[in-house]
Amino acid sequence: MDRQIGYVKVGDTAPDFCLPSVTGKDIHLSDYSGDKVALFFWASW
Amino acid sequence: MPVWQTFSNDNKKNVTVITIAMDVQGPEKPKFYLQKAETTLTTLVDEKNVMGQLYGFKAIPNVYLINSDGKVEYIELGTFNIKEPNKRTLLQNWSSGKEFRSLQVESFEQSIHEKANSLFVVGQQLLNDGKPQEAVEIWRKAISIDPNNYIIRKQIWAIENPDRFYKDKVDYPWQDAQLEKGL
Questions:
Q1: CA–CA separation, B10 vs A38, rounded Å?
Q2: What is the mean pLDDT of residues B16-35?
């Protein structure tokens, strides 16, 4: 069933990723290592 | 988004807010939205659902709170709304290092529940219209989405096997046997 969604669990190290920003800059999560980071996923639709 | 902006402004010493737009149509759509909302938050665009696959989610809006050691402290999938006062408090407490209970909210479960329930209502209507077969069909769909919904499951049983429910008394051993058979 759909309960297995969420590979990342509380207590896990957040997997690093690289995505372009809306201003065209590549951003890695690791750019912010040492910071508290809030990731908010949304969509314009 | 404006509320996230305010939270970010008020907490910029403690927290970096990164928003990720899951827009398959590319950066123009979220860009337009952000300009309208006048935000300066760092916003990334995930056109290919890279993050859904890497982090494992199928619904938005989601929040992952990551501590300064890079560990995930809070996850909420599918329903995070910063406008809710208790969510604001949670974020504020997390930011200021106050008592913060690490938590994984499986709100996806909630959306399953809602989907099943809306099918249940459709089925009820069909039943009222004198179409029990069609109602049962819809309800079977509902419990395939939400297998733990016994309200719907038992409705199906009651329609298909009225004598187990409406004669004498409810036949619980029969119900247990049905469950064992996966019905």
A1: 14
A2: 88
Nearest to B2, CA basis, from B29, B50, B56, B40: B40
Question: What is the extent of the structural domain holding B97?
Answer: 2-105
Report how many domains make up chain B. 2
Q: What are phi and psi of B58, to 5 degrees?
A: -125, 0
Same domain? For B38 and B99 the reply is yes
- ipTM score assigned to the predicted complex: 0.89
pLDDT tens figures, B96-132:
998 776 666 655 666 777 778 788 888 888 888 899 8
Query: Which residues 1-45 of A have a C-beta within 8 angstroms of B?
Result: 1-3, 5-15, 17, 19-22, 24, 27, 29, 32-45
Q: Is-contact B146 B152, C-beta < 8 A?
A: yes
Q: How much is the pLDDT for B59?
A: 75
User: Are residues B53 and B126 located together in one domain of the fold?
Assistant: no
In whole angstroms, how large is the CA radius of gyration of chain A? 13
Which residues of chain A does B48 touch, with a Cβ-Cβ cutoff of 8 Å?
none
Whose tokens are 């669990």? That residue is A9
